[in-house]
Amino acid sequence: MAPFLPPVNIMSQLTFAEAEYAIKKRTTRREKFLAQLEHLVPWQKLNQQLSKGYKKAGPGRPPYPLETMLRIHIMQLVYNLSDPEMEDYLYEVESMRRFAHLRLSESIPDETTICTGQAKPDTLICVFSKLIGDIPPLAVCNRSRL
To answer: What is the pTM of this model?
Structure first.
């Protein structure tokens, strides 16, 4: 029996990748880990602390939601991914897209946005480290490029 899929309005239909992902039989280790991370990280506290300095909409491209960028940078930290690798993973891995609250049918941050974009990765990592314990802050943008 297929799992229940929530109703989707016409403007945001399920993609083929999302539909196939919804009926797969096995939960991967990555999915289990990201589900645990979802429950362990204090998302509201992080959003409150970081929202003061986060760029609001203005001229140019609209910024990605703060929580989305925070989730992307946390996945980079956990999986030790460079900015180009993170962009590739967001396109290729459905579980990582879902964790970041992204969809293939919508815009996905490119490597430049991930590194130097509106979210200031070093600040995100510093605040995240303070909230969860003694994790040394990393220089996210100084990773090697592919």
So the answer is: 0.70
Residue type, 62: P
Q: How far apart are CA 21 and CA 41, in angstroms?
A: 24
- Give the count of beta carbons closer than 10 Å to the beta carbon of residue 37: 14
Residue 118 and residue 63 in contact, taking contact as beta carbons nearer than 8 Å: yes
Distance CA 105, CA 14 (A): 8
* 64-85 pLDDT, tens digit each: 888 888 899 889 888 989 999 9
CB 102 within 8 A of CB 47: no
- The C-alpha torsion from 79 through 82 and 85 to 91, rounded to 10°, is 80
